[in-house]
Structure formats: C-alpha cells, structure tokens
C-alpha cells in the first residue's frame, strides 16, 4: 500500500460496523490517502450526515474539500479517479473487465444485504431461506472469482481491487452470521476459492486494521436492535 498522500480535507462520515463504510476506508488506504473518520452515533443520524446526503440520508459520505460524495460504490470509483496518481488502480484498466467487475459488484449488493440481515436477526424472515440465498449467491461469486482472478490472488489479480473491496466488505458480517446461526456461511467445502480469498483479503495491509472482528459485530448488532426497539417504544 502507498504511504499516506497529502489530501485536501478528506473526511468520511460513517460507522465502523458498516460494510459500506468499510469500502471507503479500504479504498482510501489502498491509495495511501489519509482521512478524518467521523463516527456516527448508534441509532442516530448527525446533522452533517443529513446535510451531506439529503436524498438517501445514509452513510457513508465522503467529504473531499468540503464537497460530499454519496453511495459506497460511487465513492470507491470516485476515490480511484480523484487520486489516480496515488497507489494502485482500484478498477481494472480494461473497459470490458471494468464492466464485468461492476456487474458482479451490483450482483453482490442485490443478493447479500437483506439475506444477511435476516440471518443476523435484524429483520424478520425465514433464516433457512436466507441462508440458501446467500449460499447460492456465493456459489455464483465463486465462479466469478475463477474468471476475474485468472488464477491470481484477488478478483483484481495480484492486488485488491474494486470487486475485492465490495465483496470483502461483507466478510466480517459473514463471520458474525456464522457465530449467530452456528452454520457456515463462507463454506470451504462449497466455495473453497472464496474462503481462501477471504483470508487473504482480511490479511491485506489496507484491510486488516479496518475489518471488524465477528464478536464485536455480534455485540454491535445486539446494541443496535436494543436502540431501535427503545426508539420504537417512545411515544
């Protein structure tokens, strides 16, 4: 990873447990760009967040020179372009490869979040069905890894790239879901390449310090459920 590059007023508004916020942190670390992290309070939305993302009112938000950039996939691509002279490329150089990686990133975000929230008990739903949905999606992504990586260590090749960041941001919650349900999510017997990739991803120097451990995520989920329940009970 590149050493920290000088950057005018780079701030990230978010929460440490969010996989979408983690994407932004990993992208900046890959580029060697130092930032100020503005932690949102559990169960609340700050005035800065609401003012910076008035449409969706969600984190993460990247503030670069005071200008907000919203939505994690958009932010990661912005970081790659705004700091093109620092660190490795995040998106592939080839237009077709970029399209393929974007396709699978959109696929992961379409298939995984709701099912993972069900497995974690954050929303009601059939946990067995959710587990099968996650397993099916990871099976597709196992095949995608074979095609994208071309036999190398990461989806992007020899180093972490766009699709690694997107899918890798869920790894902590995969492991938390395993603790909660007692069942494997990243199953070495079903998706051996992804299981090995996840270990490499978590050990990467741009990732290891910002990847939450499963136990902390389980505790966070319990605290969030309690905060939401308390908020719902207020008149």
From TrEMBL:
It catalyses: RX + glutathione = an S-substituted glutathione + a halide anion + H(+). One of its GO terms (molecular function) is glutathione transferase activity. Residues 94-235 form the GST C-terminal domain. It comes from the Eukaryota. Residues 8-87 form the GST N-terminal domain. The keyword Transferase applies. One of its GO terms (cellular component) is cytosol. Pfam families: GST_C_2 (PF13410), GST_N_3 (PF13417). Keywords: Cytoplasm, Transferase. InterPro entries: Glutathione-S-Trfase_C-like (IPR010987), Glutathione-S-Trfase_C_sf (IPR036282), Glutathione_S-Trfase (IPR040079), Glutathione_S-Trfase_N (IPR004045), GST_C_Tau (IPR045074), Omega/Tau-like (IPR045073), Thioredoxin-like_sf (IPR036249). GO terms for biological process: glutathione metabolic process; toxin catabolic process. It is found in: Cytoplasm, Cytosol. Its EC number is 2.5.1.18. Its main location: cytoplasm. Is involved in the conjugation of reduced glutathione to a wide number of exogenous and endogenous hydrophobic electrophiles. Belongs to the GST superfamily. Tau family. This is Glutathione S-transferase. It comes from Panicum hallii.
